[in-house]
Design a protein that fits this description.
The complex is a heterodimer of chains A (112) and B (117). Chain A starts with a strand and ends with a strand. In chain A, 35% of the residues are buried. Helix content of chain A is 0%, strand content 49%. Chain A is mainly beta and 112 residues long. Chain B is built from no helices and 11 strands. In chain B, the strands form 2 sheets. In chain B, strands 2, 4, 5, 6, 9, 10 and 11 form a 7-stranded mixed beta sheet that branches. A 4-stranded antiparallel beta sheet of chain B has the order 1-3-8-7, with no helix packed on it. In chain B, β5 and β6 form a beta hairpin. Chain B is globular, with a radius of gyration of 13 Å. Chains A and B meet through β4, β5, β9 and β10 of A and β5, β9 and β10 of B.
Chain lengths: 112, 117
């Protein structure tokens, strides 16, 4: 199974400041077409998860451009250029290259 | 509007059975891989099972193999999860999730399954 490791697990951020979350996989997530099967999801308090980024760096529809994804192979990063109060929640990376699909442990972002 | 609505969650005793349903609307579920993902209370996300567009390929996490069965009825635009021999550790919110380009792009609101005596 592919193990997904996120850091940090807790992230206090001042509004307007940037934030960054790292996700590392135990195997490369590059598929046969050269795409990284890595996505980022945000679960706001009391809600279902929602897709933010797919294929490593593509923003999902309706996602603000302050969110960006980067990386390739086994190392990936989610960046928020300027954190807003509505960004509070738990962020998960997910690999969809092979079954079982696996998630990172989650990173809890809170506002200072 | 693209939507997934789960139902069927309940309180059940250890060893019991339950069938979850997921109704898709706003799109044809026959064009997508579909998954079940669960979240135990206060814990992270865990993928449970997935199947391809026509239901001919099914995959499960090891902890539910032989106990859970994923299926779909494309004529009803619905996804199912038959859960047998339930254990306390199966207690979780179960989400129906649409697959897209190696990700999940649509999540349901979830249905709660509690296994307890």
């Amino acid at each position: 199974d592919i193990v997904m490791t996120q850091s940090p697990l807790s992230l206090p951020v001042t509004p307007g400041e940037p934030a960054s979350i790292s996700c590392r996989s135990s195997q490369s997530l590059l598929d046969s077409n050269g795409y990284n099967c890595l996505s980022w999801h945000l679960q706001k308090p009391g809600q279902s998860p929602q897709l933010l980024i797919y294929l490593g760096s593509n923003r999902a529809s309706g996602v603000p451009d302050r969110f960006s994804g980067s990386g390739s192979g086994t190392d990936f990063t989610l960046k928020i250029s300027r954190v807003e109060a509505e960004d509070v929640g738990v962020y998960y990376c997910m690999q969809g290259l092979q079954t079982p699909v696996t998630f990172g442990q989650g990173t809890r972002l809170e506002i200072k | 509007e693209v939507q997934l609505v789960e139902s069927g969650g309940d309180l059940v005793q250890p060893g019991g059975s339950l069938r979850l349903s997921c109704a898709a609307s706003g799109f044809s579920s026959s064009t997508h891989w579909m998954n079940w993902v669960r979240q135990a209370p206060g814990k992270g996300l865990e993928w449970v099972a997935g199947l391809n567009q026509d239901g001919s390929e099914k995959y499960y996490v090891d902890s539910v193999k032989g106990r859970f069965t994923i299926s779909r009825d494309n004529t009803k635009n619905s996804l199912y999860l038959q859960m047998n021999s339930l254990r306390v550790e199966d207690t979780a919110v179960y989400y129906c999730a649409r697959a897209y380009l190696g990700a999940v792009d649509v999540w349901g609101q979830g249905t709660m399954v509690t296994v307890s005596s």
